[in-house]
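Annex B.
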Amino acid sequence: MTTVLVVDDHELFRAGMLAVLGSLPGIEVAGEAATGEEALDAVTRLQPDVVLMDLRMPGMGGLAATGRITERHPGTKVVVLTMNEDPGSVFAALRAGARGYLLKESGAEDVRRVIEGVTRGEAVFGPKVAEHVVRFFAGGGAGAPATAPFPHLTTREREVLDLMARGLDNASIARRLFLSEKTVRNRVSDILAKLQAGTRAEAVARARDAGIGEG
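Response regulator transcription factor: predicted structure tokens.
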């Protein structure tokens, strides 16, 4: 039996995924968690074979939790299960150590296939994610890793990081980009997770070292 831990801050989604997993032969639910911090504790206690990990959660996000789990528990495979399908999020998850990437709209058969694949040591994408990744590379990879700093950031995240590096606070960034402050806070949180930066100041320092925020 393959044991699976489900990590997502939405209770209804967790309940639905637990039901899906319970219907799949050869798969046993190890437990559930609502935050990255809870996920770390649950992995330590339960030692699941696979973790289904959401990316955006309160507190420690899914990227940071993925990095810590794969570092501390190499026998546990992390599969990201999220709404984010942009290549930047996919590459950031892979850099953090994820072995699979699925969209939340995926059906039970895709969930089964990815779980079985990562337990065999494969890196597995859901079909829609795989299509995006192939298209990204086929197009030369806009902002490919060899030519641009932080290629795993989305265009909007790079805009926000640039303004952060120029010294703007969230309210000023929101006005400049015509966004709500809540949206900016979410983008900043995503940026810190993708850069694996512990603080805003650390993210800004890394951006400036890479030439972002100059001019």
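DSSP finds ten helices and six strands in the chain. Strands lie at 2-7, 27-33, 50-53, 77-82, 100-103, 124-125. Further annotation is deferred to the next reporting cycle.
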